[in-house]
Specification:
Two copies of one chain form a homodimer. With about 150 residues, chain A is an alpha+beta fold. Chain A contains six helices and six strands, in the order ααααββααββββ.
Amino acid sequence: MRRTRFDDWPCPIARTADLVGDWWTPLVMREAFYGCRRFDEFQAALEAPRAVLAARLKRLVEEGMLERHRYLDRPPRYEYQLTAKGNDFWIVLAAMWRFGSDHLWEDGEEVPVVLRDCETGAVVTPAVVDEHTGEVVDGRRVRMSLRD
Amino acid sequence: MRRTRFDDWPCPIARTADLVGDWWTPLVMREAFYGCRRFDEFQAALEAPRAVLAARLKRLVEEGMLERHRYLDRPPRYEYQLTAKGNDFWIVLAAMWRFGSDHLWEDGEEVPVVLRDCETGAVVTPAVVDEHTGEVVDGRRVRMSLRD
């Protein structure tokens, strides 16, 4: 049975869910941010079944999140690089990082990992704010509305 | 075939992907933020197959994102309310909103919806910053590292 598609719904959350709504896709993007370029690097990092990984990479290339470049002619070999659109997907991974860090470890168990700035080594703690005011956004205080 | 589980991986992104990594779950949470409480309200808003919706609500209750309250005894009827943990999931939806708004409409096509503050009516534009510095986080400038 074909799944319901959300990629033409008039809601940005729905369209993004359609793009990343499976368990592997955000992790493939995570590895792209951590420096994976070649199929075997993604495969070694994620231990994903090869067919699953190939399908996810193909979709991400089709969606313009990754670009495929040939780095060897004989035999032909490709690597995957983040596009500008792919780079902007970081915002979603950063939010997942924060939520997971805050809520998906047992009480009293310390999250073993942190994000650090590559240059300064400072710990980075993602938060979602309103770009206009810098204030933290409370989901109970906003509503979706038609653009004027 | 059972899918690979990520809920015990040592990465907050992986654990969150395990929780929300299907197309319906973020949308069910979206509707909870928009005020849906009862099964039929979720169903009417999403037009999700009833069995799919029931399974997603059950998982979200098990995970502590929603709480089920009985609001009618005969016949027994329940409603679903966001928990504190569920409220914190807003950060992920807000990031999806921003990415989708920026990238998932055709060039020249205007996104028909915006987020507004319920009280002031001001447009809210989610951005991810570092909580310590208030600076926008660039995914290429951070790395995952073990906590000291």
